[in-house]
Amino acid sequence: MGIKMKITLLAISILVISGCSNANSQPNHPMMDNEEMDDSMRNMGGNMMGNGHMSHNEVVSLNDSTGENELKIPSMLERDNEEEVAYTVRAQIGKTEIFDGIETNTYGYNGTFLGPMLRLDKGDTVKIKAINELDENTTFHWHGLEVAADADGGPHDVIKPGEEKIIEFKVEQEAATLWFHPHPEGKTSEQVYNGLAGLIYIEDDNSKSLGLPTDYGKNDIPLIFQDKTFDDKKQLNYRAAMNDDGTIGDTLLINGTLNPKLTVNKEKVRLRLLNGSNARNFTFKLNTGNSFVQIATDGGFLNAPVTLNEITLTPSERAEIVVDFAELNTANDLALINEDGSILLPFDVSGQNGETEEIQKELNDFALTSEEKSLPVTKEIELFGMMEMVTINGKKFDPERIDFTQEQGVTEVWEIYNKKDMMGGMIHPFHIHGTQFKIISRDGEEPAENEQGWKDSIAVHPGERVKIAIQFNHKGVYMFHCHILEHEDNGMMGQIEVK
């Protein structure tokens, strides 16, 4: 065993002891016996030696996109009939030609890989027939959608192989880019990794009046970013690639496309960014250094466009940005890149001009009230640990335990604290089901301008304390958890009952 590995395992040992000490300081925290701890240590050591990152900060870089394949655009899901807003969504097993001439085993919704885009309007009463055609249990989680708990698709809402469920809800939130994915206990990471993810667009009267690019697949482009590791047979061998601290790959797929490029006209193009990865964070920017404008967060439009040179999204976060290709110098190569310079998406700008309408200065009327800012903290969330030792408030997920209760329609303030571990800690993307919330502060400071909008997931940095104002409009039991999917599967999840 190398010196670096010995140091790492020593740090893990200290972390385990520290974590258990923390658990002892609070009542009713489940403890590990010595045998369980030894097994956990061996598993963590094996994972760290076998694949993945050696620390929270060292991750494998992505291969550059060669731009040889035109970006695939998810199809729009058609209604089952014209009389009602009814859809059928099937979770399926398939084979997909990701690499030329090679079939990769994949999962998909209404197809072999990923899923269609589901377009809804505010005010719609929606009926979805969810069918499980996999050979294992799954759920259908509507990420970011404000729905009653029995329609949310959390780990309690299991649909067995060959079974189906009718899910009904009314769309009562504003225009946003949401998504759907599975959420079975202990299996979310593998099912998403294998391809289960799709988009939801909500539109409303405001979104239709803003004059934004809306030509789907032409100047309104969905971008689902996911990193994968393929084995020597070009298969998604999750068990081989899996890392308990978050599975990271060296190969980027956008909308399931390998080595993608996007052909655009000389016009303003709206890019709807979704970090659909298991664990990788992305910092998006243009290789030319040019700026773009952000117009929306997870759950809706910002009040006004925010000019940025880069934007970071952790797993499950979304953002809508507009890039004006009419204003960019297209004589040289142009691409969307990651923070380390990896080429994510080359752009091929045609000579054809398109829409040039200016983005309106007023997009929304989002507000964080003085009353919300002055509310006391009523719920404290402590995120802690690494690998299999991740916890929330010193506890692992128990489907029979309710961690918090909150009254329907009442706004409360939660404080989320990312406690550093002995290795310094890592960013935890914290997600709450069934609602959208407002960020009050980060370490006592006002959030950045481009975070002053509706959110359902938030990046919490090591040592950071974030306050949010949150209200649930529906009753039932909802999940809150880290959206590093392996952390979620390892128990970094809790439950709130809304009464």
From TrEMBL:
Domain annotation Plastocyanin-like: ranges: 99-206, 233-327, 376-498
Cross-referenced InterPro entries: Cu-oxidase-like_N, Cu-oxidase_2nd, Cu-oxidase_C, Cu-oxidase_fam, Cu_oxidase_Cu_BS, Cupredoxin
Cleaved signal peptide residues: 1-23
Keyword field: Metal-binding, Oxidoreductase, Signal
Pfam assignment, any one: Cu-oxidase_3
PROSITE patterns linked: MULTICOPPER_OXIDASE2, PROKAR_LIPOPROTEIN
Family: Belongs to the multicopper oxidase family.
Protein name listed in UniProt: Multicopper oxidase family protein
Organism listed in the record: Sporosarcina siberiensis
